[in-house]
Amino acid sequence: MIAGLSKTQALIAGVVAAVLVVAGVLLVVLRGDGKSTTAAPVSRSSTISSATPPATPTPSPTPTVKPPAPPSVNPLTGVGKPPSGPVLAVKIDDTANGRPSRGLDQADVVYIEQAEGGLTRLLAVFGTHKPVVEPVRSVRASDAELLSQYGAIALVASGGGGDSLLVLDRSRVRGVIYARGGPGFSRDANRFAPYNLQADLGRISASVHTAGSRNVGFGWAASGPRVKAAPATAGVRTVVGSTPVTFDWEPTIGKYARTIGGAHLHGADGSLMATPNVLVQLCDVSVNPADVDVMGNPSQYTHSVGSGRVVLFRNGHRIEGKWSRASAGAPTTFTDLKGKPLLLAPGGAYVVLAAKSAPV
Fold it and tell me: Which residues of 289-317 are buried (b: 16+ CB within 10 A; e: fewer)?
């Protein structure tokens, strides 16, 4: 018995000592020569730190999306390189009071559309040239839809009634509006209002930061077997609203000259209003009750999103086809009846937006 301990305490101490001896024996490792050595204790932390860390997966590289290649030729005329600077559209009068027009012959594309009271108005698109244009008139609600396919371009106009300016403001098209103090406007003292508002597109182009030329669906080719095989025709005859729209094919200049009452239409400088292409695009046209003129005539809304029939006049021939446009931001697709691209003669175009019921 250990001195100072009770019998029970001595028994417990003996058991603990025996356990310690056994633990020490377990730490003894015999070497190959019969001698023994004591193995160093292995801590839990050292075991974890020495393990091989899991491999970190290498992220897949994000594919680079290349922007669409810029057009190699002017997409609005098929002639020369794409013009630099912004594209401007101008709303222009198309009545006897507004004639002769100024600068219209320098437009790349001219749309003839219905306004109200059966009258027509022009929407001219300028990318290549930036002349002084006259007479500038007011915007219509359907203009924003039509021009949105050109991207964030500018629309030059005198003002707008009803909901037309509100619709324009909500679109991607920027309004350069005389009634709002837009730049580049002046009055022609030799004409009477409202047919005397002129716009200097050079000044406006320098003051706005809008989109340049882009593909809006026109394809171009100088000639081809499909053109030669198409029926020959002496000109274009259709109606927009209650206004006759006519062009005569002039083979000596290779263009269609616009006619009013059988006479060729000229500009203020004597230039002939002529184009190598006339596209008659037949659209749904509906009444816009939110825009009514002072005579009580509601404006007409021409729907340029959708699909329908189109007739191309070029090189003295008539080619039937179809048009389609999925959304306001999308270009218009023009094909012949076999689904092949409808190709225009290089040099620009007049696009006549007539109702689907109009004769062509």
Answer: eebeeeeeebbbbbbbbeebbbbbbbbbb
What's the number of CA atoms in the CB half-sphere (13 Å) around residue 75? 17
Give residue 10's Cα distance to chain centre. Answer: 98
Integer Cα distance of 246 and 259 in angstroms: 6
Please choose, from the candidates 196, 262, 239, 187, the residue with its C-alpha nearest in 3D space to the C-alpha of residue 356: 239
Q: Which residue has the higher pLDDT, 44 or 76?
A: 76
**Cα–Cα distance between 322 and 311 in angstroms, integer?**
8
Distance CA 139, CA 142 (A): 9
For residue range 29-42, list pLDDT tens digits in order. 333 344 444 444 43
Ranges assigned E (strand) in 109-184: 109-114, 120-126, 132-133, 154-157, 174-177
Where do the DSSP E strands lie in 60-99?
A: 88-93
The C-alpha atoms of residue 73 and residue 77 are separated, in whole angstroms, by 8
The answer to whether residues 247 and 350 touch, using CB atoms and an 8 Å cutoff, is: yes
Q: What is the pTM of this model?
A: 0.81
Q: What's the pLDDT band for 69 if we cut at 50, 70, 90?
A: low
Residues 193 and 129: their CA atoms lie apart, in Å, by: 26
Name residues whose C-beta falls within 8 Å of residue 46's C-beta, 6 or more positions apart in sequence.
Answer: none
Residue with structure tokens 């230039």? 271
List the domains of the chain with CATH numbers.
Answer: 88-207 (3.50.90.10), 219-277+305-355 (3.50.90.10)
- pLDDT digits 0-9 by tens, 52-61: 455 555 555 5
Q: What is the DSSP letter of 295?
A: T
For residues 202, 206, 212, 213, the Cα torsion angle rounded to the nearest 10 degrees is: 10
CA dihedral 76, 79, 81, 83 (to 10 degrees): -40
